[in-house]
Amino acid sequence: MAQAKQIDRWWQHIAQQQQDNKRIGILLADESLLIPVLQSLPASMQQVNITMGYPLQQSHVYSVLKLFFEVQQEMLQHQYKSVHHTIARRWLEHPLCDAGREDLAKLQEKILRENLIRVPVTALASLSKASALLFGRMMADMEAFQRLREMMELLIQLPVAKSDHMTKGLCTTVWKTLQQLEPLFAALRPQPDLYFMGSLLMKQLGSLSVPFEGEPLQGVQLMGLLESRGLDFDELIVLGANEGSLPRIKPPDSFLPDNVRRAFGLPVPEHQDAIFAYVFYRLLHRTQQLQLVYNALVTDNSTGEVSRFVQQLEFESKIPVHHSKVSYQVAPDAWPEITVAKDDAVMRLLSIYHMQESPKTISPSAINTYLNCRLQFFFKYLARIEAPEELEEAVEASAVGKVVHKLMELLYTECGSTFNNAISKVAVQWMQEHKERLVNEAFRLAWRRKEIKGTFEITGELHIVRAIVLQYVDLLLRVDEDYAPFTLKSLEVKLDESFTVPIKGSMKRVVLSGYVDRVDEKDGVVRMVDYKTGSDNPSFHSLEALFERDGNKQNKAAAQTLLYSWMFRQKFPAQRNFEPALIAVRHLQQYSNQVQLIHKAADEVVSHQNIHTVLEAFETQVRNVLAELFDPTVAFDQTPDVSHCQYCDFAGICGRG
Questions:
Q1: Is the preceding omega at residue 485 within 30 degrees of 0, hence cis?
Q2: pLDDT greater than 60 at residue 449
Q3: Is the CB of residue 578 less than 8 Å from the CB of residue 608?
Q4: Taking 60 as the threshold, does the pLDDT of residue 452 lie above it?
Q5: Cα 166 from chain centre
Q6: Which of 154, 267, 339, 364 would give a disulfide with 271, using CB separation of 3.0 to 4.6 Å?
Q7: pLDDT tier at 383 (50, 70, 90 boundaries)?
């Protein structure tokens, strides 16, 4: 690409001179530079004659041909029932897909909604005629030729092909080539299988090209180096003058060894070098000025050395050679800091949280998001920018937590009904025995979409995830067994409580909301139980540290559990004996199955005996955070801690992704 950009500088130099009747040429020693060169031609270069053909290998038509054989191989391996979603989407999103937009949108939505890792072939084949050819089952491998010809006939009728002569020409060329190759492949004995036939066919088709239309006697001539034999130019630029491209180092396409070729006078590499040498040196006879451009970058495909012909010119001839080094500083622009001031428009967005009627609620997750990054809160809760929905091929850590929560809910729902909410050690043992029966249903409801009916089949690596979920649930139930007997009060309890916050000099009401995983009671003490499957632990340094933005003393899980406790106290003021319980599965052994919160600074656990004192101080901290949220002088800015951006959905907007 950098070599192609030199054409503009070269052309500006020529444009300053008298161009009338000048023979001007752009030669490509490396013909793979054709597309970058076409994209880099200056607008003032109005007449260009391209003698090289547009390569099929760099077209959408070639990608359809390649996709055809990939689809057939994929279906063959899976009994023609389904294909992987990545292969299906390559067709659904292909520019030459002939299916209707509504049908495409419906199927893509279904793939996301039902999280289809493998897409049924029947759903794809019914989309359109070309889809039927692509995803239909072949009775014989040689049927591929007929199918591909029919597909080219369909593609050539598409509006995009009718308006694009290049696509139309490529489809026609492929159709003719397939017609010529079919009898040759049919005569092979034994008959090649689909994989081998596809490899040979794609290699043959990959060498095809379609000529451009142009006037060979006018304008700038753009051609390959060997096409210039016998032609004279006044002004000339040669791109790709690297050793390996000039001359081109390519072994002969022959099964005959080198010594046999030499013995019978057949072409050998030296002949190829001689042809390149003749064409190159002949260009020097008439040209007034010649620019040779090469890439000095060392890569797997290039040594970064200039052609031996250029070095020979410099050391063995009297032709003056001037060297100039051109380098481009390719570096991304620095991303500007993003700050959203709380102007009238933003304050109106915030006002939905303190409306008189039906205000929007603030969850513990929203508060943690605000503490994590003010700008992230703005994007997610005020601007309501939604992250694009993606197919979950593997169960991530967050999804594992959802499945564990759902399995515990299913177990306690059935157990509470069976044992009349009296959870004894026998009841916990009953749940241990029934967890494997309900785990697939937990996957269906929590990881997959709820609207999907039927059973959920565990396949592939999901067996490992299933084992992890069962292990986590086993640990949770062991903690409950040690605590039993107790009474199950409720599951997935929703709490919505008012909270007063100073906003513009007056106290306004906002609503805090959240869901408690489980509420139980033992010996007159009510517990708000929250399960955690991540890196959370029940220990926190101080109440102030729960709300700090810098440092590593935050504990989001502890803050969330305390906020649930505060809402519980507001909802049930008569219930004085209660305490939070945080069951952090991954830290049970470290804390000796401790589920009560540990307040390090006070050197105490948070229990029903001191919960009210803790909540008074906690309430003050929450009010300070919410007061800042509604303070018009505090803008929504980016967090200075870039580590917070690692899993942020909006990191790309900020340039931190």
A1: yes
A2: no
A3: yes
A4: no
A5: 31
A6: 267
A7: very high
